[in-house]
Amino acid sequence: MKKLVSIGFSTMLMACLILTCAFSVRPIGKDLYGYYQSMGTMGLLDSIDSLFSTVEKTMTNNFILREVCIDVYGLIQRIEGKNVVEDAAPDKAVLKGNDGKLYFRGAVTNEGNGDDQVKNREIYRQTSSSVIDLKQYCDSNGTELLYVTAPHKYAASAVTLPENKEDYLDETILFSQLLTDGGVRNINLMKELLEGEKPYSDGFFITDHHWNIRTAFWGFQRICEAFTQDGSIQIDERLFAKESFTIYTHPDVFLGSMGVRVGKYYTGMDAIDVIAPRYPTDFRVAYHTKTLEKNIEKAGPFSESILDEKISYNMYITSDNPLIHVENRETPNGKRFLLVKDSFGVPVAAWLACCCDELWVMDLRYAQAESVKEFIVNHEIDAVIVLYNPEVLSSELFYNFSEVSMGK
Amino acid sequence: MVFSSIIFIFCFLPCCLVGYYLLFQGDRKRQNRFLLICSLLFYAWGGVRYLFLMMLSIALNWLFALLLEHTGKKRTFLVLDIICNLSILFIFKYLGFTVSCVNTLFGQSLTIPKIALPIGISFFTFQAMSYVIDVYNGKDKALQNVLDVGLYISLFPQLVAGPIVRYSDIADQIENRKETYELFSEGVYTFCIGLAKKVVIANNVALIAEKAFLADARSVTLAWLGILAYTLQIYFDFSGYSDMAIGLGRMFGFQFNKNFDYPYISSSITEFWRRWHISMGTWFRDYVYFPLGGSRVKNRYRLIFNLFVVWLLTGLWHGANWTFVFWGLLQFIVLVFEKMSGINKLKGGLLLQSFKHIYTMIFVMLGWVFFKSDSIASALQYVKSMFGVDAVQLEYTTISLLRNHSISLILGLLFCFPVTYCFTDRIQSATMKTAARGIFSLLCFVISVIFIAKGSYNPFIYFNF
């Protein structure tokens, strides 16, 4: 028995090590290569410390049983009746609301005090003036500009915890007002969703912080309406008709940003809706990597060129890239759009590609070769849509349209 | 590197075991060299710069032990060794504190040096001193090879958080230990149980303690819940780490003495200190208290002075902050009271025993308030909250914390007592007993790994030590 315990324990540890290394050769190799590349900039002792921390992080993140462990951990938390699942990063602790949806603690606690709010409001004035400045620039080039505020998943009454909530509603209203005063056409989808008939939280995934696909599609249609209301841009009428789209649901397939931290047994998994044009389409999509080289090109109908095989929120135009170019070869209307967005714009970009000849999708979180203003001129853009969620309102990185983004 | 991490359990430990048992099986010298390399790597993982400090400590103590053994100036070299060790400890641990005290007391504005505290410096410095003192006292012979001294001082199982292994306890094991399946499997059991203590109980109740201590305002219930949680956290964290160290030592054939013996069942502070951090208590007893004269002194004032010195140093050993000094002095006051009144020796019925137990735990918990707090002022504020002064009505926080951490609290309260013996003692068959322990340990290990792989809250409370 004692021999069995001794040999069994040692073998189990060794097996986990070998399997972890065997099944994670690529990510481990990638991390170590990243370390090797950054080594030259460090001193000897720093580079040794950095090597240790890289190895530890890599082995921890790629541990062979990690996903199983997280699933079981979530199940244990569920059995214990916990509505808070702690995380190594305190603000990434996950709260379960009374509506069964998950929320990050950092998103529902008001970390700041009154002074911070005043400071934030000052920053909003600065970021809004950047948008107003962009509007004036667009006007001088004959380009349309539309600013869209995506809704933010916040707990409201869903989480009955003592922490104060940070809902950003007041901030978005203030921001919208500042834009309106500056003559910028804008849509506050957060406010509109709150005023809608359905419960606000229905607009979001259970396990992810993003709006769900149907809500994003509603957001896309609101953008189209905004353009057609004043006749500034002609939008294909088929995009407004429900029967022009096929909608089907993949049930229980997706674990979002909160879900991956608590596993699939804590609240279950999310469904993903696929909304695709029913009519014939033909796109050519080019994805630019972080070095701004084209590394993937896809061509074909919406289902082949725009949609990814892996079912997730990012299945529309494969996640966040610095720059994406979509060419619509089926229904040209001679228009070129530029969408400047954060991750909330991922699904919107897919449908927006149906509205124009060419769509450029730019993400200022990554380094760019041109500033937004330069891009507008150089690529003869007809309409610019800036789509951000309220969490980035005070982040100047997202609102620097005059200079070339160096990324985060 | 901490024991409760994926990198340690599934990378470092299996590599050590493979090297030790497969590559160098039967060659004690090579096994010891291999363990030394592993131990230095283990220490370097937390910051490679501090490895040089440890190597300096190893070299100095090796040299002084040889010098005092082979020359006629035994006392001189002992004093020099102690001065060197305490100087290293002072510079890295107490210099900043001393300068800030000088600034406060004399109205100076000297620049306070910001020196990062090397992990486990108090542990390895005390071990190193014990080596030279034991050689001085003639208990053991000095090791000729610096690598053997290096292994004793840096042996990774007890390097970061103890127990403080005395040289006299381990001298023979460096060359003549015997690895057996029985000892290895005992090591596995002890390691798994220690891991569960740390990961499943301590890390979870720590969240309550953090919430209560960091709150701007707290209710009476939150204050008591917070200190109860911290009482459990520090015990399960520290004893869990000690168990893991003892278990790891056994896996490599070493036998370390136990460091905790259910301290929370004590019915006096005197008894508490016989059960809590035993290796530190006996170190101070043998190397400070006894040399000062211990309790065999001519008058009680001298006894009180001896106790005062020991507890002042014990407080300071835990960290360079007035809160630790105050905590040490609180222990001193209660211990003197017990010695003078003889309350700790009173025997009586259940009522008296219950009273003594409650009195002990109240003082232990009050002590932990100072131990945990950043300053005396915040500790006093916390104590006020416990007794309803300046407390606020925030019952929802308490309810929410209880809802989310009740299982960990219950487990903590349960396993403070020797409940496992109640079950194992009922099993008659030795095979069944072994099987039951095996299953329980495996369960502890699996649950712990699940918690570790998730990457939840995993505080490291030994930075001050």
Characterize the main sheet of chain B: none
Main sheet attributes: strand count, strand direction, barrel closure of chain A: 8 strands, mixed
Q: How many DSSP-defined strands of chain A?
A: 13
Number of helical segments with 4 or more residues of chain A: 13
Q: What percentage of amino acids of chain B are in beta strands?
A: under 5%
General shape of chain B: globular
Low-pLDDT residue spans of chain A: 108-115, 161-165
User: Which bin fits the share of residues in helices of chain A?
Assistant: 25-40%
Arithmetic mean of pLDDT of chain A? 84
Q: What would the average pLDDT of chain B be, to the nearest integer? A: 89
Low-confidence stretches of chain B: none
What's the assembly state of these chains? heterodimer
The span between the termini of chain A is 56 Å
Largest interface: A-B, 41 and 48 residues
Structural class of chain B: mainly alpha
Topology record:
The complex is a heterodimer of chains A (408) and B (465).
Chain A: H1 2-23, H2 25-39, H3 44-61, H4 66-80, E1 84-85, E2 94-96, E3 102-104, H5 105-108, H6 114-141, E4 144-149, H7 169-181, E5 186-188, H8 189-195, H9 213-229, E6 245-254, H10 259-262, E7 270-277, E8 283-288, E9 294-300, H11 302-305, E10 323-328, E11 336-341, H12 346-352, E12 358-362, H13 372-378, E13 383-388
Chain B: H1 6-23, H2 28-44, H3 49-70, H4 74-106, H5 121-136, H6 146-154, H7 167-176, H8 181-214, H9 220-251, H10 269-275, H11 278-292, H12 300-318, H13 322-341, H14 350-372, H15 376-386, H16 395-415, H17 419-424, H18 430-454
Summarize, please.
The complex is a heterodimer of chains A (408) and B (465). Chain A is α/β, with parallel strands linked by helices and 408 residues long.
